[in-house]
Amino acid sequence: LISFFTPNVLAGHHMLVTAGPTFEAIDPVRGITNRSSGKMGFAIARAAQEAGAKVTLISGPVALETPRNVQRINVQSAQQMLDAAQEHITSANILVATAAVADWRPATTATEKIKKNPQEAVPALHFVENPDILATLAQSPRAQSGQLYCVGFAAESQNLVEFATAKRVRKGVPLLVGNIGPSTFGQDDNVLVLFDEHGHHTLPRASKRTLAKQLIREIAQRL
Ligand code: CTP
Ligand code: CA
To answer: Annotated catalytic, 159?
Structure first.
């Protein structure tokens, strides 16, 4: 019965999903993060598992239950997410990068809580750029030789078609999934626009669960 409702289009495949925000520490009690809920990535991990894939889910800090039979690895920072992804990508053949990775992190992390000091100026934050997890893995020999299929995401607040078309090429991925953010963050539904080498087409507004299932079929068709 289950196989009737969920065709095993990803049987024999291993998908790695990055999800949620990252958290970049300033000191032991403070940090920089964003409003990603992780819902889309978790829905994709669940749908992939239901479609027969082995699924590894690398998640930043989110308040979500781990989907059944999905291996979950919790991380905080972009660097930790990259390290975990590089460790687990070796056995995966599909990467879906939904994480809202912080583009920058504080250049230094204080080991003690930074105290107010009326004698000094307020602290200034200096940033350095984080590694690009998707671009790093998409440029790996396994991705370049077709053994790893990479799917990117992009939340754009404007010019979705123009920005996402360029982003797909810049990231070097065959499929990039765009959505109009940040209004989608934390919501239970979404609209997805799929960009590939042929152009783009829209998956109309639906629950993230439904969209995840549709996206799994789109990915399976392209493998
Ligand atoms: N991504 C990533 N590592 C980063 C930044 C982004 O893996 N350090 C991934 C995201 O998970 C997503 C894709 O790259 O799949 C696009 O992320 P996005 O933030 O839209 O693109 P950026 O290249 O960071 O460009 P910008 O934020 O300036 O639009
Ligand atoms: Ca970014």
So the answer is: no
